[in-house]
Amino acid sequence: MSMDRIERWMATLRTEWPFKLRLRVWPIVIILLFLACIVTAGLVVATTHMTRMQYAELQQLEQEKNQLQTEWGQLLLEEGAWSTPARVEQIATERLEMRIPDVNDVEVIRP
Questions:
Q1: Long-range contacts: 100-104, Cβ < 8 Å, 24+?
Q2: Contact call for residues 72 and 66 (beta carbons, < 8 A)
Q3: For the chain, domain boundaries
């Protein structure tokens, strides 16, 4: 009797197998598509967050760059001011007590 049952079961499987398999595959396909949508949505959120963080960092770096350029410009101006003849003359007068000689103090020597 068990052989008879097995043969009936095999016959049933042969006649119903493709149809039943297709019905059982659809729920799996739907679940996989749903999971793919969830994973994709998570990746979109993560990518958006990373993009915003990198944009904030870019803005901070640009601000630092602008500050450094301003400081560089100020240093160039100071360098130019330090090397002017008026500045050199002022330092010579104040620190070294040098002065331009008067006409009476000048002596011309001829060969």
A1: none
A2: no
A3: 2-95
**Per-residue pLDDT tens digits of the chain, which is 111 residues long:** 577 887 777 777 666 555 555 556 777 888 999 999 999 999 999 999 999 999 999 999 999 999 999 999 999 988 888 878 888 888 888 888 888 888 888 888 887
CA distance 35 to 40: 8
How far, in Å, CA of 33 to CA of 35, rounded? 5
CA distance 107 to 83: 30
Tell me the pTM: 0.50
- CA-CA distances (angstroms) from residue 111 to 36, 108? 103, 10
